[in-house]
Amino acid sequence: MKAVFIDRDGTIGGDGSGIHPSEFTMFEFAPAAIKLLNDTGVKVLLFTNQSRVGKGYFTERELLEGFQRMEAELEQHSAFLDGIYYCPHKPEDQCACRKPKTGMLERAKAEHQLDLAECYVVGDTGGSDMLAAHRAGARLVLVTTGRGESSLGEYKHLWPDIEPEHIAANVLEAAQWIRDDLTKGGKLCTSEIQQKR
């Protein structure tokens, strides 16, 4: 089974910085991007660092309620997520899940029987999203929304010698590129599409 991991802040909405769940809004094109991936026949998984939970800016319950609102909005567009993975820890906690560590990717691998080498990671931050993808052996797609532009410029030193396979203007363009990449050369077979709910 193949999957696309998508970062939240700066990728499907927001400006790339931590934001209270009640204030988070998706980009208008984000539901269409997720729906396109749903229709392509891959699992779509959200993975996000949420250290403001650990820092006390908002509670884990508020975060989960925010995810529920986001999923309800996606449902209005006939789009859905196959799973949500989040790290609520502070950087100093030295947990195994906070990007750029690969804990969230590894957990999803086990739960969804994934080959991470066949999966894609879409995110706006080189030093967390792209570095986590590289360490896990997944395919890298950087979007220039959120912190994407600065990840390619002043913060490129945080992920030296790592280059994304594709740089997209936004998550919808990233989804279109992934669909095209999967369908060329028969990378995605009909049976995989039929397995989707």
Provide an overview of this structure:
- The protein has 197 residues and is an alpha/beta fold.
- The protein has a single domain, classed as Rossmann fold (3-Layer(aba) Sandwich).
- Helix content is 39%, strand content 14%.
- It has eight helices and six strands, in the order E-H-E-H-H-E-H-E-H-E-H-E-H-H.
- The protein has a six-stranded parallel β-sheet, with helices on both faces.
- Helix 1 packs parallel to helix 7.
- The C terminus is likely disordered.
What's the structural blueprint in terms of helices and strands?
Elements: E1 3-6, H1 30-40, E2 43-49, H2 51-54, H3 60-76, E3 83-87, H4 103-112, E4 120-123, H5 126-136, E5 139-143, H6 148-152, E6 166-168, H7 171-183, H8 190-195
Parallel strand pairs: 1-2, 1-4, 2-3, 4-5, 5-6
CATH architectural type? 3-Layer(aba) Sandwich
Alpha-beta classification:
alpha/beta
CATH topology (level 3) name: Rossmann fold
Rg estimate, integer Å: 16 Å
Proportion of β residues?
5-15%
Proportion of residues in helical segments: 25-40%
Please report the number of helical segments. 8
The span between the termini is 13 Å
What would CATH call the homologous superfamily? Answer: HAD superfamily/HAD-like
E-strand count: 6
The number of domains is 1
Largest sheet: 6 strands, parallel
- What does the average pLDDT come to? 92
What coarse outline follows from CA principal-axis ratios?
A: globular
Q: Residue ranges: pLDDT <50 for 5 or more in a row?
A: 189-197
| Series of H and E elements | EHEHHEHEHEHEHH
